[in-house]
């Protein structure tokens, strides 16, 4: 119960950060299009710094085995999400934004500060497993889903700062190399900005949107249900009844980290990629904001269900 309460509090904090962005546009201090600069900063600076910083820990066989367990769980979850999204896309008539919002969660921007605040900084390491799997997929599969048929530029994908950060992070972790103090402080500082900057950009994007109109739309409620409840419940059932908890001494909390990432709101990256590629960023931000609001309730409930079944 305590973890669930802490989760709700931290999610509410991030929601207020989004509200600040919304109010800056409403008051005329910034324009909606100014959020594009912040979105690019988050995607190309803050996100890579989060990945690199998370690998600045001592290498041990126990951490490695825990990381491999987290990675396997993350791959399984994404098979369910992408496979389920593909199966549901036809009969439910998902467009690219809806499909990507169902399949990809706010694992980095939201879960890193949540895990750090609720479970402790030492557990952030395991969130990188989800971030790595999702980063690779969202810049390949996810980008093509949002762009709906645009040809992939593999050179651009492989040279993306987020992919490069994954490689650098692994090398530093495996070799035990630590960044120099000044460099490490710089990387950590940019990484710490990811939550506030992401939510600020989302709030700014919907600054000119009539929120009354937003909550009168029926479609986003359904998308949020699939994103926040339907797929997370499937993940919980698999985690609790597969015997995965016995695979590692910290498996219960490692899988909880993966569950938190799975049950997180729609990825801010969907909004940011939609904005970068000229797609319907406003609709993507509507889904994101609604899912952030609803996850204040749904994420603690998912954790309660997991703890009850474990």
From TrEMBL:
Protein name listed in UniProt:
AEC family transporter
For this protein, the parts annotated as crossing the membrane are: 7-25, 37-55, 67-89, 123-142, 163-181, 193-215, 222-247, 253-274, 286-306
**Highest taxon of the source?**
Bacteria
Q: Where in the cell is it found?
A: Cell membrane
Keyword Phosphoprotein (UniProt): no
Q: Which UniProt keywords apply?
A: Cell membrane, Membrane, Transmembrane, Transmembrane helix, Transport
Instruction: Read off the InterPro entries from this record.
Output: Mem_transp_PIN-like, Na+/solute_symporter_sf
Its placement in the membrane is given as: Multi-pass membrane protein
* Entry's family note: Belongs to the auxin efflux carrier (TC 2.A.69) family.
The organism of origin for this protein: Faecalicatena fissicatena
User: What Gene3D superfamilies is this protein classified in?
Assistant: 1.20.1530.20
Location, primary (coarse class): membrane
């Amino acid at each position: 119960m305590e973890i669930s309460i802490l989760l709700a509090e931290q999610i509410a904090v991030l929601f207020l950060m989004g509200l600040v962005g919304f109010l800056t546009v409403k008051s005329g201090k910034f324009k909606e299009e100014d959020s594009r600069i912040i979105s690019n900063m988050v995607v190309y600076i803050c996100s890579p710094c989060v990945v690199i910083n998370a690998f600045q820990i001592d290498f041990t066989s126990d951490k490695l085995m825990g990381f491999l367990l987290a990675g396997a769980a993350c791959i399984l979850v994404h098979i369910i999400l992408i496979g389920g999204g593909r199966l549901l896309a036809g009969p439910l008539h998902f467009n690219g934004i809806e499909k990507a919002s169902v399949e990809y969660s706010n694992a980095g921007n939201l879960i890193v500060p949540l895990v750090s605040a609720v479970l402790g900084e030492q557990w952030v390491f395991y969130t990188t497993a989800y971030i790595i799997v999702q980063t690779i997929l969202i810049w390949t599969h996810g980008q093509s889903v949002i762009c709906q048929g645009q040809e992939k530029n593999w050179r651009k994908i492989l040279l993306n700062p987020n992919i490069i950060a994954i490689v650098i992070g692994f090398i530093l972790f495996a070799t035990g190399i630590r960044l120099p103090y000044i460099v490490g402080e710089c990387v950590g500082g940019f990484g710490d900005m990811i939550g506030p900057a992401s939510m600020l950009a989302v709030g700014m994007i919907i600054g000119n949107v009539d929120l009354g109109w937003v909550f009168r739309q029926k479609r986003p409620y359904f998308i949020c249900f699939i994103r926040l409840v339907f797929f997370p419940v499937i993940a919980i059932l698999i985690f609790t009844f597969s015997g995965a908890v016995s695979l590692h001494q910290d498996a219960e909390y490692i899988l909880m980290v993966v569950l938190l990432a799975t049950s997180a709101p729609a990825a801010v990256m969907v909004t940011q990629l939609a904005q970068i590629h000229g797609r319907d960023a406003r609709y993507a931000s509507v889904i994101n904001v609604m899912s952030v609001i609803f996850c204040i309730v749904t994420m603690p409930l998912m954790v309660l269900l997991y703890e009850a079944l474990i």
